[in-house]
Amino acid sequence: MALGMRAFQLKSAWLFGILVWLGLIAGGYAWLLRYSFAAGKTSAAPRIIPAALGLRAPLERPQLLLALHPRCPCSRATMSELAKILSRVPDASDVTVLMYKPQDQPDSWLEGVLLDACRRMNCRVRPDPNGRLAASLGSLTSGSAVLYDTNGELRYQGGITGSRGHEGDNAGEQAIIEILQKRRSSHRSMPIFGCPIQPQPTN
Amino acid sequence: MSSQAASSVASVIGHAGCERRPSVDELYRAYEDKVYRRTDRLFFILLAVQWVVGILFAVVISPHAWSGSVSSVHPHVYAAVLLGGACCFFPMILIWRMPGQAVTRQAVAIGQVCFSSLLIHLTGGRIETHFHVFGSLAFLACYRDWKVLPTATVIVAVDHLLRGLWFPESVYGVAFSTPWRSLEHAGWVIFEDVVLIWSCFVSRREMRSICEQQFQKQELLDGLENRVRERTRDLESEIVERKRAEQELKELTTQLVEASRQAGMAEVATGVLHNVGNVLNSVNVSTTLIGEKLQQSRLSHMTKAVGLLREHEANLPAFLTSDPKGQQLPQFLARLTDHLVEENKALLQETDALNQNVQHIRQIVSTQQSFACVFGVTEQLGAKRLMEEAIQLNVAAFDRHGIKLVREYSSVPPVLVDRHKVLQILINLLRNAKQALREVDRADRQVTLTITAAGDRRVRMVVTDNGSGIAPENLTKIFRHGFTTKKDGHGFGLHSGALAAKEMNGNLTVHSDGLGKGATFTLELPVAAEQLAA
């Protein structure tokens, strides 16, 4: 009898352990998902392309401006999605990557997988000391894309990945392709997932 | 199956020799347990390696999160360490504490697919990483327990369904997804499950078949072992019996050796007596001849002559010149002297032969004595000399019976032999020839003595007579101990001669064309080694 009770207790302990374990895993995944879908900060981009960029309407081709933190691992997915856009609508736009760089760092600070990807895609790379150019476009998070048409008017602002660091079809990417294909797009803005370009104030 | 059951079966299997034979079911459960434990060990390693690889992925792909120029450890690294650890460690603890149990397998299945999900996340939703799910299912199938596959499948399906509904990007990498896509993914997983579950059933069927075969084999082995045990018992008693028989045999052998020794002594005595007897015949002949010669001696004539001289001692010159008897006396004395000289010579010759025979008897006895202690002395001797010595000892007998001796000697190298053994053989052969010739009534009684070389290594000494011959049926028996065709024979001479020839590395053979056609005895002896070397 005592033996049966002990076996029951042991079994219950194991069951409890398994439930706790499953709960831990579920909690861990919930935290991970929350992090993955936590959108970065952004502010509204100018409706007309800013003069600070040295571009003036009418433009020869639509301008796609992408703000990147060169060391943000989440932005690798952004580069993969940009590659998809360029392959889906080749030569439909001029792509300029504004690559963040601390003021006091040399240009070699930019070197990394993201700069390599830009070179492979023949994108124009502009070092962006302290992210001032990006800030002028309202891009405060790495992976932020801003699209101006040939008239210099804002057509899209937002991310081109579905979540943090995840490749795959998503609404932002789809919107840019539709705009470049001169089709009607239902999205003009989407959340951005990436590292903050500017240092975030600590609470 | 509980671990107690498994261990008890293992015990039954481990001590099959001394405990009861396990049934097919017990063997099957033990085999099953072995597979479970083996696969548990495999997963223990796999989970540990996966956890490390997951951390490496996180560290390599996303080591830091950046905020401007400030970096911090990326949350993916924490996720890889903590969440990955949570996925792996609990099943690993179960494997360590409760190997082979169903709950362990189920926990492994859950942990493994949860880790697949984490890995997909850490690699940025790469579609290639989804293959980890399929690989994991294949690994789980190693348990050959189909029940772990539905558990893993349910986890995958629920994960895909929930995330597909609320966070499709995190699982499919797209923002737009329908439940059908989740079902499609689950469908592929189920497709693999069907194959794996089927393979599990097939494997288990084969396991059962192996156990049945093992059971039958064990049954056979046990039967064989029993037979071996019985046979061993039989052999043991047989060994005891044999040892007893050996002991008896040993005792019998001892008795037989003693009997043989006595018989041998008798045989030796027979041999000695035979050889001595042969020589004694010659001695007898010699003494008879000496006696006869002494009886027939003219010495009495000398006494008469001396008497005449003494009678006429006073007028001896007149007696010798005028008396007719006296006138003949000097001539008579001269003839008598010649005769006595010849008689003396013959007596000396016969005495010499007698002496040789006595010496030979002495040598026979001495040889026999030395034979009893040491081997005979071998020496290099000429075959011709040996033959002549043997003839010399028998020559009177041959003369007496009017037997002609023919010598046909070739030039041959010396032989390495024991002189007296050879003489015994030859004397025996000559004596046999003489006896064979005595039995036939013919004028040309003849013994031919031949010496030739038989190749480079042997010398052949042949004694051929044209006497009574040997019947064909007796040719094979003639050297046998105790076999004789003579009325007064002992059946020993040729037997001992053949043995003596063999001892000297030679041989003695016989040939006869049949009764009345004579016989040929051939003694082959080895050439001396020095001659061979030369």
* CATH structural architecture of the largest domain in chain A: 3-Layer(aba) Sandwich
**Which chains have the largest interface?**
A-B, 43 and 40 residues
- Give the overall silhouette of chain B: rod-shaped
CATH superfamily placement of the largest domain in chain A: Glutaredoxin
How many β strands of chain B by DSSP? 9
Q: What helical percentage do the residues of chain B reach?
A: 55-70%
* Residue windows where pLDDT falls under 50 for at least 5 positions of chain A: none
Low-confidence stretches of chain B: 1-18
Structural class of chain B: alpha+beta
Tally of contiguous helical segments of chain B: 16
The helical percent of chain A reads 25-40%
Oligomerization state of this entry? heterodimer
What is the gist of this entry?
The complex is a heterodimer of chains A (203) and B (534). With 203 residues, chain A is α/β, with parallel strands linked by helices.
Structural features, described:
The complex is a heterodimer of chains A (203) and B (534). Chain A is built from 5 helices and 6 strands. With 203 residues, chain A is an alpha/beta fold. The longest helix of chain A has 35 residues. Chain B has 16 helices and 9 strands. Chain B is an alpha+beta fold and 534 residues long. Chain B is 70% helix and 9% strand. In chain B, helix 4 runs parallel beside helix 6 and helix 13 runs antiparallel to helix 15. In chain B, the strands form 3 sheets. A 5-stranded mixed beta sheet of chain B has the order 4-6-7-9-8. In chain B, strands 1-2 form a two-stranded antiparallel sheet. In chain B, strands 3-5 form a two-stranded antiparallel sheet. At the A-B interface, helix 1 of A face strand 1, helix 3, helix 4 and helix 7 of B.
